[in-house]
Specification:
Number of helices: 6
Helix content: 10-25%
Distance between the termini: 87 Å
CATH class of the domain at 211-373: Mainly Beta
CATH superfamily of the domain at 211-373: L,D-transpeptidase catalytic domain-like
Strand order of the largest sheet: 5-8-7-6-15-9
């Protein structure tokens, strides 16, 4: 029908060319006898005829569009789902898993007549299940049992690294799965799940909520010994309280979870407290230690960083752990981090300090000074 209408509109029906009478007089090719124009009456009849053809063709096109729209509506009613569905009433919507989800998260749920499967139109945040479990210990390894191991095994199953259901026992299969994961993620391969491995599996607890922060001191403020305070330091009654189990006597106290250090005198007065950036790994051994070595300038174990005012309190297989100022790149002396980033675990083992805090520690923590790590 469309083809017929086009032919009529083009004026090519009955074998006539789709040109005006005037154009028919301007053919190219061999010379032909010149035709005389038709009389006026004939022109009027031709114009009336063309007008009638145009009206009929337009009516036919309108009829074709109406038929197409009617067929589209019919196909939707016969089971072809529309692109979107209107929101379903009620306070909750049921997901395909069968759990109730707030209606604010799922705004449209419908069942098509053809497939009987839910078509969900998500407008807000995608609904999620229960929050993932997190470790309740700093590290777990072979022979450990309990909820932390169960959580680890759930994560390994979710990553496709374990086929058996969780049993809460860190057995040989669990260790092999952990080592394979560490290898693929280019982590240190030891079969032990500490911070870095747990972070990569999504089971490390939120650390930011545990960091102990204080407001910046006033410009020019000093501590109880007269040393200038950094932007992350406080002193005396403005300092946070000491953590439980932090010993007694003149000492430095380091709270790993809080990413904070306290300098305490022999009268249990907090001279100064400040944020640090501690280790990303589980190599800061808790307990009571002593400062055993100091260097005005040292280098990292890999030779890539300068470590100003290094105060060592722990030996490890690959190097020492201690307090020092913000590390500098060997090639250009630029800092590895800013003072504003203190409170975030960024080091490989040491405790990075603002330069003003490193100056204080250098003078306070002579060899033999007690360091309590909690």
């Amino acid at each position: 029908m469309v083809l017929v209408a086009v032919v009529w509109l083009d004026g090519a029906s009955r074998g006539r060319p789709a040109v005006s009478p005037e154009e028919q007089l301007e053919h190219t090719g061999p010379a032909r006898p010149r035709r005389h124009p038709p009389p006026p009456v004939a022109l009027v009849k031709a114009s009336s005829y063309r007008l009638l053809v145009s009206v009929v063709a337009t009516a036919m096109l309108v009829a074709l569009v109406s038929v197409a729209v009617a067929r589209s509506v019919t196909s939707t009613a016969e089971g072809v789902p529309p692109a979107r569905d209107a929101p379903q009433p009620g306070p909750t919507a049921t997901t395909s898993a069968g759990g109730a989800t707030p209606a604010s998260a799922v705004t449209s749920t419908s069942i098509t007549a053809e497939t009987a499967e839910p078509v969900v139109d998500l407008v807000g945040a995608e609904p999620t299940g229960e929050a993932a479990c997190v470790l309740d210990r700093r590290s777990i390894g072979a022979g450990d049992t309990g909820p932390a191991v169960d959580c680890l095994q759930q994560a390994l199953i979710a990553k496709g690294r374990r086929a058996q259901p969780p049993n809460g026992v860190f057995d040989g299969d669990t260790q092999l799965a952990v080592e394979a994961w560490q290898t693929d993620e280019q982590l240190f391969v030891d079969g032990v799940v500490g911070r870095e491995t747990a972070l990569s599996l999504g089971i490390w607890p939120d650390e930011s909520s545990s960091v102990i922060r204080t407001p910046p001191p006033e410009e020019g403020a000093v501590d109880l010994m007269g040393y200038p305070l950094s932007s992350v330091a406080s002193s005396g009654s403005d300092a946070p309280p000491l953590p439980p189990g932090s010993g007694s006597g003149r000492r430095l106290v380091y709270d790993r979870a809080g990413q904070r250090v306290w300098a305490v005198d022999q009268n249990e007065t907090v001279i100064r407290s400040w944020l640090i950036s501690g280790s990303k790994y589980d190599n800061e051994l808790p307990g009571t230690h002593d400062v055993y070595s100091r260097s005005d300038m040292s280098t990292a174990w890999n030779g890539q960083a300068w470590l100003p005012k290094m105060v060592r309190w722990l030996k490890t297989d690959i190097g020492a752990i201690g307090f020092h100022a913000l590390p500098l790149h060997v090639e250009d002396d630029s800092p590895y981090q800013t003072e504003a980033e203190l409170g975030t675990r960024l080091s490989g083992g040491c405790q990075r300090q603002a330069n003003a805090d490193a100056d204080f520690t250098w003078d306070f923590a002579q060899i033999g000074t007690t360091v309590v790590v909690v």
